[in-house]
Structures are given as C-alpha cells and as structure tokens.
Design brief:
314 residues, alpha/beta, globular, 13 helices, two-stranded antiparallel sheet
C-alpha cells in the first residue's frame, strides 16, 4: 500500500504507461466493441503482453492491465461462463506481471530506474455501459448500486496481486466513495483514484475536484489522487486545486485533447502537442505522469527523459 510513497522517496517522478486501446489499434487490432481493449484478452493475449512490454521498454515505471472495460457481466454477454470471465480478468493482471518480469530480467541493470510495478485497472461503470458516460457522469445508478457493480471485479483483481489498483476515469465523487467502500474489505490493498474532468475545476459529472481531494486525503488506502482522460489544457489547474487539499501524490495521465464520439467509438479533432505540457504538470505538483487515450510509447519516452534529467540533478 505504501509502494508509491516509497518510490517517490528515491525518485522524483513515477512514469506511467500510455494509451492501451490506441496502441492495440495501431498494431491492427479492432477495438470497436463493447469490450474495447478487453476483447484482446481472449483474442490476442500475446499482443496484450507485447504492448505492456513495450511501455516498460519506453520507460514506464507502471503499466496498467487491460481490465478497464473487463467485467464478468460483459464477458458473459459474449458467451463466456462466469468462471471463464473471472479467469479473463485475472489474466489481464497476469499478462502485465509476465511482461514486467520478462523486461526486468533482461534489463535490470539498464540505467537508474526502479523495478517496474503492475497496476490493475478498475474502470468506471460508464465503461461497462460502453456509451461514453464516463465522460458525462449521467449515471442512473445509486452509490449502493455502484458498489455492487464494482465489488466482484475488485475481489478478482485484488486476488491477482497487482502492486496497486488504478481506479480511473471516474466522473463522479459518489463512484469513488463506492469503490473505496468495497476496498475496505481488503485493508492491505492500495489504490490511486483518478477522475475524468470537464474543466479546471469539475469532474465530468460536475463535482468540484477540491471536494473529491479533501475526502480522499483522509482515506488510508488511497496512495495517490488525480486526473486522467482529460484535455491537457485543464490539467495544471486541476493539479493545483488538488494540491490545496492534500499532500498525497498527484497522478495525471490526460488524453491528447481530441474529442471522443461514443456512438462511432472514434476520436476527432487535432491532438495537442503532449510533450509541451509534461514539465508544466510536474512543476504544478504531479508526481505520477503518463498518458491516456491517443498517447503512444513515444510520449512515454518523453516523460521518462524528464524523469531521468530530474534524477541526474538530485
């Protein structure tokens, strides 16, 4: 649970990986499906492992499992049994662990960097709905219903023994509360909580990010608090607002600033030059930095270069 804090005692910055579904698509895999990148867990698991490996090779200290859109119910809709669905969610973590171990065995002496970690992705209820509502937060589910939804997958992911849980793209404060209520059953487990946001103040569902941070600051199982899959230009302001409420590390991994169409499951618009923002986020107070949708291993190499330069100045 203290892994993030321990790393930051030794290193100035933790580098996260970049977009997973984007990278699968770049390599020819069709993610246009309700399961999105989780479809690759049963169609091309070797490709999943390869993407994780390549992010570690690009300099990521943490790679995150392909379980963002993986749920027992979602796999059952595809014809899998309940036990097969659970096994696929477990596989999502195992593939990252295998990629990490393979990479580290071959590169343990490569440069001044820590042994990489494995994060298990806990995507929002909206990801299961596959209608883009994680970017709107217009759920009809109550907090209790959200807790029921997340409980089984959390149990499976915790049992797979990742280093940390990445509870991400949450549009609602109430969904963070629901997940943390479930997580109390596993007191040794730690997580970062990351929200999708619509501007420099609010989550996509309209909560003030400062209120979210104030609550999460008091939660012992929360290792870091932050923002992901949010337009880059909003992030520095959000970081500063979070930092006013907590001393916990701030985690950010925005998208490239394009707009997602939930109907066609495509992105539109022009990408923001990602590298121009990274140092700004660090200077604003972020200590875990990576990329979300539309980012690539090249973007992660740029963040790793910043980490290396900061380390050399210590």
């Amino acid at each position: 649970m203290n892994t993030i804090a321990e790393y930051l005692q030794e290193y100035p910055l933790i580098v996260l990986d970049g977009a997973f579904g984007t990278e699968l698509a770049r390599r020819g895999f069709d993610t246009n499906d309700e399961l999105w990148s989780a479809k690759a867990l049963f169609e091309q698991p070797e490709l999943v492992r390869a993407v994780h490996h390549d992010y570690y090779a690009a300099g990521a200290d943490i790679s995150t499992s392909a379980s963002y859109q993986a749920t027992v119910e979602g796999f059952e809709k595809k014809g899998f049994t309940r036990e097969q669905a659970k096994a696929l969610i477990t596989r999502s973590v195992r593939l990252v662990q295998e990629a990490r171990d393979d990479y580290w065995q071959a590169n343990a002496k490569a440069g001044q960097r820590p042994r990489p970690l494995v994060a298990a992705s806990v995507g929002p209820y909206g990801a299961y709905l596959a209608d883009g509502s994680e970017y709107r937060g217009d759920y009809s589910a109550s907090r209790a219903e959200l807790a029921d939804f997340h409980a089984e997958r959390l149990a499976i992911l915790v049992a797979a023994a990742p280093d940390i849980l990445a509870c991400e793209t949450l549009p609602l404060f109430s969904e963070a509360e629901a997940i943390l209520a479930d997580l109390q059953r596993y007191p040794a487990a730690g997580a970062w909580i990351s929200f999708s946001c619509r501007d420099e103040v609010h989550t996509c569902g309209g909560d003030d990010i400062a209120d979210c941070a104030r609550f999460l600051d008091k939660q012992s199982q929360v290792a870091a608090i932050g923002i992901n899959c949010t337009a880059p230009q909003h992030v520095a302001g959000l970081i500063r607002r979070i930092r006013e409420q907590t001393d916990k590390p701030v985690v950010v991994y925005p998208n490239t600033g394009e707009t997602y169409d939930a109907v066609t499951k495509t992105w539109h618009g022009s990408a923001t030059p990602y590298h121009e923002f990274v140092r700004q986020w660090y200077e604003a107070g972020a200590r875990l930095i990576g990329g979300c949708c539309r980012t690539t291993p090249d973007d992660i190499r740029g963040i790793a270069a910043l980490r290396q330069s900061l380390q050399e100045k210590r």
